[in-house]
Design brief:
Chains A, B, C: InterPro entries: RraA/RraA-like, RraA/RraA-like_sf. The structure is a homotrimer. The longest helix of chain A has 23 residues. Chain A is elongated, with a radius of gyration of 19 Å. Helices cover about 30% and strands about 25% of the residues of chain A. In chain A, helix 2 packs across helix 6 and helix 6 packs antiparallel against helix 7. In chain A, a hairpin with a 2-residue loop joins strand 13 and strand 14. Chains in contact: A-B, A-C, B-C. Chains A and C meet through helix 3, helix 4, helix 5 and strand 9 of A and helix 2, strand 3, helix 6 and helix 7 of C.
């Protein structure tokens, strides 16, 4: 962390991403089904306290991370933000994950960043904090998960502590390249090393849940359908 | 309340419901007008801290209740939830009312329960807690009033303490068969014994408010229109 | 403030409003751009903790203010509210600003007031508190910024302490005639004496931000475009 006028952020440009086909399969799964699969694998991945701010969108992609910290007295002012690095480090389909420490009094994202992200094919942004220019972002239907909106700028209030370092958002550790999954229910982080196992389990959960709904459609009671497909065991560790 | 591995919930299957014609008349009234009528009858019925999660829907129906409590160490895991009882106890037009103690870290409702509820003709669900599968529930336009959404399951975190017992949601006692009214403004509970009186008063409030709006349309000032229809007395007890 | 049955509110009917052409120009600007201009002028104007309750609307207009205070034991009940004064004091395009002390347990605005406000051509309402009749207000697409909705009336709970006095909403002082700007991101107050300076600066901010987006469209990186238009200095005082 920089102190007293030093601005010396850690910038990591190389990110190891999971295979694209795994990410694409996650995109067809809901956060609840994948959350159950995370539990099967004894991984905590539910990001808390962030809301889906654009209804009806769904994202899955590798995390590009940034950690912001406040300026201290004596520091010189904001010189750059994640936008200055996007052209170098972000690829199509990435998800920007911003740790602004849950600050709700000023923003760290707006429409210039959104316009740039859309141009680069970035999938969406997850912010432990606030953003602005909500009207324009709603028009673009750009996926954002955040604490809320406020007009006040983060300029001269925040500075970059690190890009593509491990960050914490909504109580969850996110490392660059971890898969971020978001939908109307919320946001998950899937550790990249376990992505294949979690995908397999999530597909089993989804399949079982679909069978339960089909069974109720066909005339079983919900109790019968659940027993048939072991509903209350779906989230339990099998490994 | 069950302790240390005992799972012995209180299940009541028989619910005394108010007459259907009374419920149907409530469905045409707004929660604000009925809230004023509750005050006239010195009844507190405003459920606090729950949000209407599907915009533009309105529900009125008798409550089917469930109280969940957390699992304790030594307990064996969730064996059933309200869904297992729906086929036995719920009738078309009922409202499911769930007391999950205001828990925001895991859910107690999702799309399988919603699909089942829709199949059974259930009117909606009121949850002092969270739910998941919001995207699917929005598509079904199934009315839910809750604290919010999160992907994490309640399975192996909660258990039934009672079905069709008295519960507390948003600071209000709800007994099975009490009428639940919900719209974009919020949720009310109307005690079944007083439903007829409250309905009568609510219709008077609605009529007076309509006359005030008509009078302003016709050229009176709001001050004049309110004095004519005793606006500031509408919520006062007359019995 | 009135005590023990005294009801003696301060009512000011004459409000000095900024020129209409200045207000109309603000209506084309976003709260983020104007927020940056407020900072340039060393003015704090960001109203916190109120949410835009009707999506996709934008307001700019001079404030007509009301301060409510709770009834105390011994007081006689609500005799009037802001609606009783609207016909005398509000003009087309005004914004009603209500300081209800952030109370979330009862309302101070509803559909009769909204209907009357629409009839009078009032632009919108900002409430540090709650409102009701959200369904009807959504249908009218009347702009409201507030803490949320609840059915419970404020009648016999609140009384007027002052109309067109200085009030506090969301941590910001608002005086009658100050310009209120609201959009999907939030609400600002622009002090009337500084409106012309702030407007000029906000247009510069908007112009610079548009140039940055155009430059990224034309192939510059965001870093290059920002340096060209001095992005990180836009909010800094120049006077």
């Amino acid at each position: 962390m920089s102190v007293c006028g030093d601005y010396n952020p850690t910038i990591v440009t190389k990110v190891e991403r999971p295979p694209r086909n795994i990410i694409d399969e996650f995109k067809n799964l809901s956060t609840p089904n994948v959350s159950d699969a995370l539990e099967r694998n004894r991984v905590n991945g539910v990001v808390e306290n962030l809301r889906p701010m654009v209804s009806g969108v769904r994202i899955a992609g590798p995390a590009i991370t940034v950690r912001y910290v406040p300026l201290s007295p004596g520091e010189e002012g904001t010189k750059e933000d994640i936008g200055d690095y996007l052209f170098e480090i972000a690829q199509q389909g990435d998800v920007i994950v911003i740790d602004n420490g849950g600050v709700t009094t000023y923003t760290c994202w707006g429409d210039i960043l959104t316009f740039t992200a859309v141009k680069l094919g970035i999938a969406g942004t997850v912010i432990d904090g606030m953003f602005r220019d909500y009207d324009n972002i709603l028009k673009m239907r750009y996926p954002i998960f955040a604490r809320g909106t406020i007009p006040r700028t983060g300029k001269d209030r925040l500075q970059i502590d690190g890009v593509n370092v491990a960050v914490e958002v909504g109580g969850i550790l996110v490392r660059p390249g971890d898969i971020i999954l978001g939908d109307d229910t919320g946001v998950l982080r899937i550790p990249k090393e376990k992505a294949a196992d979690i995908l397999k389990d999530a597909k089993q959960v989804e399949e079982a849940e679909r069978m339960i709904i089909d069974s109720v459609s066909s005339g079983l009671t919900l109790r019968e359908a659940r027993q048939k497909y072991r509903y209350f065991q779906l989230q339990r560790a099998t490994r």
